[in-house]
């Protein structure tokens, strides 16, 4: 192959290809096609009708039962699903409110220790045993049982345990008292769980710092250990009091200005403490808050220059950028506090008066080593007497300016603290949360319920082999102190809540009802998605498993719905923005959008037009959306086999071990607790269990889940269950259809065809996946690569698999075709397999709906050898044959519809993008509209956290024998297109040898000159200038390079979100079809060598497939550039203040419905900071005098 490599030389021009439509070529192809199609063996047995037999048989079997193909009513379907989701969420919110009420009552109850030391279950001191096997001193023993519902951890569902962050003193009286009274929550935790066994972790997070969590676990969560085996300092839980679930429940939304002293005295340890304080404040903020950070010395300016005079939504990206900006602070000059304070007040007043920001709490956080004055004139001008802006002061170091900082805070409804060491920082920040909670506590009766953004939690409760992290959200409510105290206080006792698995929500929006390529999603009041098939959290669940700290994910709807024909990155489509606006406002409606859909880690792209339906989830900040493909997606097949009164035992349809069902779909499940569910190791065991049970007397279809408005938190029957009657009976019918196909497919007359397929093409496996989630397969040869998992292990989620989705999409383009694919870049590794799939549609009353996808896997080596040796490297007929694919004169490729190489003479090319091999020809195919280049913007990209913005990266008769006739059909199709290739390459060959081809003038066009010449050897090509975008000139794409983030563990340090762009490719089959014939298109590169030689090539579509045949002449040493499909970071124009990114802050959002930021009696609370007795007295007198003065003046 070395001799085929070209060198760049001279300058080149490409001639546009022309289409070969002559009668002679058409007759030749059609003649060969008919011979191969209708005469398989020497007896010339007609098989044209037989090869379609399995499809027609499936079609007939569905018609033998009572079936219908109906049009979906999207809005009715949506309303039913939204009601079910609302019902489930009502259960969770009711459980939280019961815990809240119980906690407030328990805190009022006097605690008695009866003279005995108080004992409790400290998670870190559970099941720690000494060398003698007895519990170690100071520890307790508890029976813990692994439970898949609770992250597969060992738990005790009768008790809760206490999780203590390392900085919390468990011996402090305030902590012990709260642990004591909160013990009374255990019966309620148990009662909630028995009434709703789908409940996840329940908890009470105390303001004193401990977390009471149900069910009880040991920490670290090992079931048994010894003193010397259990790590004592590893895996400490984080201090949850700065987390979004706690802060959002304890406070209303807030606008925050952080002023950080950057004067000459703020160096060394002071500078470090100041930055750490600012970062900790930022960590307490979330999507409903707004913030900016300003540094001040002799003048005041934003730490991020492009965030000038604005407040930013405190989403993950903005918080990260603000925190990053703190590392560039350099101490200089003298602090101008007047400038800093007036800047803060001006911005907050502007936002308040113009209806911007949170429209709730407002605060200035002043971080300094001490001001020379208390600046009461500024506060008098901007903030008194009503004090709409709270001022929190953080004195850094051992300065003597405590009086001034104390006065600033206390005269403006804030709090003062001194920070001398790192351990002071977090404790100091917590005070602002306590202060902002005061109005809510003082009103007593209003307990706003909050839902957090989505995050990656513990291991999913799934019957699949993958026990990976699951998406979660948390619902919380505050707990108020109703006790009487000797002084006026308003204390928040803590926050109660429960975690909610997103899988529990998706169960209520069954994917089978949406159909293939349909999906659901949920949007909150900020326009962020709670779940969406395109949501890709940045981090895995490692942080959560080690510390329980959630890494929240705030991804906007506009970042997961990629509209077709967008003009540039973040140039949002108006129809998409209207959809987003309506969902945020919780309206009902429907719309249509054409979107880009990517597969295989953003390497393949397809376009689809969807119908969107959306509806509010009442009583929550969420709206539910459904997206259903236009055309085939709007119809569904209704076909079921009645189970209860069936004359045949339906379990007979499920014999053998070569079938599986979708592990995440709920056919039936026990709902009365996890104990019954734990008997099932697989989803198949559970299906068979309920099918057997359905035959027993007294069986009832329990297809309605419990209703929250009838729920009194009563214990459910341990044998309570739920069954999706439609799904289960559809599964039985699909099993029956494929079971009967077995007898037809095993007819003796098929043996020769079977042998032909096995031997000629290396058939290893055949399979069928149905609309009901069933997968059946047959192994025809042993696994060619034992190091790789079996097909059924990684492809059990039929309708969700890429090959299923692509087959259905391909059916809309060419109903009789198969989709051929190989794994990405598989050529250099192992023994690759080619997968071929075909969608089976059933028709009724003029409507068609997808019923299944059938498929085969071939040994790539066998099929490739047949292609290279028997077809393209042999001469047949009367055609002249000076060149073959085996020669050095031609390169031959079979490419799929996304430009990936299926077959090449170089096996290492298998699975690679053709543009990486020969970008010049690929570029020509794009310019000639054979492939369409589609720009895909990835707004969830991952880049390295550096300043450089360039990143990239069996013998027995098997149940699957029914598909043997499908195999025969596909085998014949393979023969057809291989034979067709033979003919096509012959045509291309004759063209490649044709030196006198004349092109009309209108076929000739000038294109860019490709770089060529001897300098390609040993010298790097110069970077091409970035392309310009007239509609959006504000960004450029960096030069192509490989993606270094490919395969990187995103949980490790040093990665960040970024916007990335990649150009992907999609075949335009209409360009290769004329009058129903697949005629070749021919082209050549000219003026590409000093000798004046030309480089012809030919491309032709392979019938009944998603493939094309490409033949390229290699004798003329034209240059070959490379095209990459590695995503590149987008660096935006820095002309708007130095930002190399675009923010999402201009997008519409809806504020939370409740804001509790003021109570008229709050002024009576005198606790506003920590200082010496003299300082407090002096400050109190000063504040009293100021208040009196203002009363007189007003």
TrEMBL record:
Compartments it resides in: Membrane
- Name the predominant localization: membrane
What sequence ranges are listed for the domain VWFA? 255-433
Concerning PROSITE patterns, the annotation shows:
VWFA
Q: Which domain of life is it from?
A: Eukaryota
* Membrane topology field: Single-pass type I membrane protein
Signal peptide coordinates:
none
One GO cellular-component annotation of the UniProt record comes to: voltage-gated calcium channel complex
Quote the protein name from its UniProt record: VWFA domain-containing protein
Q: Which organism is it from?
A: Ignelater luminosus (Cucubano)
